[in-house]
C-alpha cells in the first residue's frame, strides 16, 4: 500500500486562498523539478449520526469524514478525527451506509486541482 500524507492547511485568520497564492505554490513545485501532470478531483463528505435513541449516542463517533481518491476508485477512506484513526473500506460502503441510515452526509466539499510528480512523490495542489 502506498503511503499517503494529507496536509490540512488553512490560511491565516483574515486571509483567503487565492489564485495568486496557488500560482506561487505551483511555481515553487516546478522550480524543484516537479513535473505537471493531469488534473484531479475528489469529494470530501462530512458525516453526522442520525440519532433516534439518545441513550446510546456516546457509543458511536459523533462525526467523521469520508473521502475517495482518484487513483484508488475502489476504495473509500474514513477519518475519525476524535480517535485519530483512518479506516479503509471498499467503495460499496457508501451504498451500505445509505441503506442503514445511521449516518447522513451533512456537507460535501468538491476539490479539484493539478497533480505534480516529484521523483517518487505525487503532490496534489
Automatic annotation (TrEMBL):
InterPro entries reported in the protein's UniProt record: Mediator_Med20
One matching Pfam family: Med20
Localization terms from the record: Nucleus
Cellular compartments per GO CC: mediator complex
One GO MF term: transcription coactivator activity
Keywords: Activator, Nucleus, Transcription, Transcription regulation
Organism field: Tanacetum cinerariifolium
The name this protein goes by in its record: Mediator of RNA polymerase II transcription subunit 20
Subunit note: Component of the Mediator complex.
Parts forming coiled coils: none
Family: Belongs to the Mediator complex subunit 20 family.
Database matches in PANTHER family: MEDIATOR OF RNA POLYMERASE II TRANSCRIPTION SUBUNIT 20 (PTHR12465:SF0), UBIQUITIN SPECIFIC PROTEASE HOMOLOG 49 (PTHR12465)
Function (record text): Component of the Mediator complex, a coactivator involved in the regulated transcription of nearly all RNA polymerase II-dependent genes. Mediator functions as a bridge to convey information from gene-specific regulatory proteins to the basal RNA polymerase II transcription machinery. Mediator is recruited to promoters by direct interactions with regulatory proteins and serves as a scaffold for the assembly of a functional preinitiation complex with RNA polymerase II and the general transcription factors.
